[in-house]
Amino acid sequence: MKPNCILLIACAALLSVFEARGAVDIIVPQGALEGDGNSNVSPLNSGQTRFQQVYDASIFAGYPLGVLIDSVEYRVDSLSGHGFETTVFNVQIHLSTTSRTVDGLSPIFVENVGSDDRLVAGPAPFMLSNLGGGGVQGGWGALVDIRTHPFYYNPAAGNLLLDIIAPNGAVTTAFDAVDRPGDSVSSVASYFVNPIPSSGQLSTVGMSTLFAFEPVPEPSAVSIFVLGIVAAGVAARRRIRRSN
Fold it and tell me: Fewest CB atoms less than 10 Å from the CB: which of 3, 128, 178, 184?
C-alpha cells in the first residue's frame, strides 16, 4: 500500500475519534432543569443594558480536560415573555474564564472579566429568534452559535462568565431565569442607564441556560492514532526501500 494511502486511512481514523465525542447538552441552573424558572431577566431589553452571569465550574466537572462550547441558548419567560424574531445591532456577547465565584462577582463589570475574554457575537448585526413561546414548552433559542469557532473552556482554570453589552437595547421580551441563592449561577446587571455605567447591581438571579458543547477527548485515544500514523508511515517507507 502506498504511504500516502496509509496516511489517509490513519487520518480518517483519527478524525473518527473526534467525531465520536458527540455533542453534549447541559441545562443550568438546577431550577431550570426542573421546569420553568421562578424569575426572569431582560439582558437585551429596549433600554441600555450590561448583564454578566457567572457559571460555577462544577457544572463541567465531568470534563477535566475542558470543553469546546458550540452554543449558548436561552428560553423566553413563560409569564413576561413572548416569541420574537429580530436583528440586533451593536450588541456584544463575550465569554471568558473568571476567578470570581458564584455569589462573589464584583459590582464593577471589568473586575469580573477573565484574561481569555473573547467576543463571540456582534457588534455586527445578527439575528435572534425564539418563536416557540414562553417557558419549557417554548424551547430553546441560540443566543450565540459558535460551532465554527467554539470557545475552549477549562473548568480547572476558573468559573465561566457570560458578558452581554447592549448599548442601544435589542429585544423587549424577558428571558426565563432562576432566583435561588446558593445555586450554580449569579449575576450583576445594569438596566436603563445611558451610557452604561461601569458597575451594576449584584443578584442571585441566573438566566436559564442550555450549553451545547463537545468534551475535549482524552489524550490516550489521540496519542494512539498519532503513533499509528507515524508507525504506518515508517513501515511503508521500509517496505519501499527493501523492494528497490
Answer: 3
What are the grid coordinates assigned to 168, written together? 442601544
Give residue 145's domain range. 22-216
Burial of 19 (0-12, 13-18, 19+ CB in 10 A): exposed
The yes-or-no verdict on residue 113 having pLDDT over 90 is yes
Residues 242, 179 share a domain: no
Map grid coordinates 437585551 to a residue: 44
Residues 46 and 157 in one domain: yes
Strands 39-41 and 201-203: unpaired
Number of domains in the chain: 2
Residue 185 shares a structural domain with residue 232: no
> pLDDT tens digits, residue range 157-194?
999 999 999 988 677 789 999 999 999 999 999 988 88
Please tell me what DSSP assigns to residue 38: S
Closest CA to 27 of 131, 180, 139: 139
| 98 in the same domain as 158 | yes
CA distance 27 to 93: 19
Whole-angstrom CA distances from 192 to 86, 163, 199 are: 20, 17, 13
Judgement on whether residues 86 and 1 belong to the same structural domain of the protein: no
